[in-house]
Amino acid sequence: MAPAQAPRVPAESLDVASGLALDAAKKAARIARKRAQIRLGFISRPTFDPQAPLPPLARCLRGGRGGQVRLKLLLTYLWMQTKDHGVALAYPAQVWARLLDLDQPETAGARRINEAQAWLEGHMFIATQAQPGHANKVTVLNETGNDEPYIAPGAAAKALSNDPEKARPHYYAQIPATLWTNGYIQLMTGAGLAMYLILLDQYALTGAAPQPVWISPSAFKAYYGLSQDTRAAGIKDLTELGLVTTGRQSINPNDFDLERIRNVYTLKPDQLDVPARRLQQPVRGSRDEFVDPHRRLARPKM
Fold first, then answer.
1. pTM (2 d.p.)
2. Which long-range contacts (CB under 8 A, 24 or more apart) does 102-111 make?
3. DSSP class of residue 13?
4. Orientation of helix 190-206 relative to helix 228-240, angle to 10°
């Protein structure tokens, strides 16, 4: 019989990640990448087309708390892909549940992991192989859900560097291991994690260091397929974790129309270097130069 487990407050309501989760993350970091690689095609549609199929990020998120676990688990699998081709992972569901700081990791948390694995396999993000008496072997597929074998995007883009058009689907963003080891992914909501990835996508478009970003409602829907409620909840989550600052800027500094003032968001990547703690008061940001996200520039060279 499994030991009794005390009920735990949902991670998104906690001030810090649990010691159990942080210990699991530090052990995982010994065999994981220093920076996870994720194709930009996972985050956004390649063109301004609200009618195109939803990008994988939006598809993963659908389904409430289940969507949050699916997204976190898939990113964790990608973090642990240390070779150019897919590395099979065979760890019990309880191990993943502890790493992600799920409630009751030995029982209810493990069930949520199993449900997430089943969904990810059904939508062609992973392949699983049953091993009687042992944990299922999980092999990551291409994270855009096209049912192709996994090749690390950095390696794939490099191999096609002489043909930019063929290399373009492999352009990627990088996520530091500290997202896991300092307790951020454990505390994030699904909306917060989505907005974190979306900001990484915005910066990848220009290759610029983090600076204020504004995303119009039409662009947000067309490229990311998520609701404005998700955007608002995600920015709130990132602000509470100190990962984003918010400012107010004019869309056109030479225009006297005061109604054309918008919130702009700036990612704070250095925040990941300190242990995660959920702040009680929103963090106000600076009012730096405005960045127009409609300007979908060519992806930077690898």
1. 0.85
2. 102/11, 102/69, 103/7, 103/8, 103/10, 103/11, 104/5, 104/7, 104/8, 105/5, 105/20, 106/2, 106/3, 106/5, 107/2, 107/5
3. G
4. 90
Integer Cα distance of 247 and 234 in angstroms: 16
44's CB contacts (< 8 A; 6+ apart) are 55, 57, 198, 201, 223, 224
Q: What is the pLDDT of residue 289?
A: 30
Q: Using CA atoms, how far apart are residues 230 and 220, in angstroms rounded to an integer?
A: 11
Could you tell me which of 159, 241, 233, 166 has the C-alpha nearest to residue 194?
233
- Nearest CA among 220, 156, 158, 151 for reference residue 191: 220
The DSSP secondary structure of 228-297, one letter per residue, reads HHHHHHHHHHHHHTTSEEEEEEESSTT---GGGEEEEEEE-GGGGGS-----SSPPB--------TT--P
CB count within 10 Å of CB 34 equals 11
DSSP one-letter string for 68-137? HHHHHHHHHHHHT--SSBPPPB---HHHHHHHTT-SSTTTHHHHHHHHHHHHHHHTTSEEEEEETTEEEE
Q: How many residues does the chain have?
A: 302
For CA atoms 135, 100, 213, 208, give the dihedral sign.
negative
Which residue type occupies 256? F
Output the furthest CA–CA distance in the chain (Å, rounded): 70
What amino acid is encoded at 194 in this protein? A
Domain locations along the chain: 15-273
pLDDT range class, residue 9, cuts 50, 70, 90: very low
Q: Tell me: the pLDDT tens digits for 118-130?
A: 999 999 999 999 8
48-95: pLDDT as tens digits:
888 899 999 999 998 666 899 999 999 999 999 999 999 999 999 999
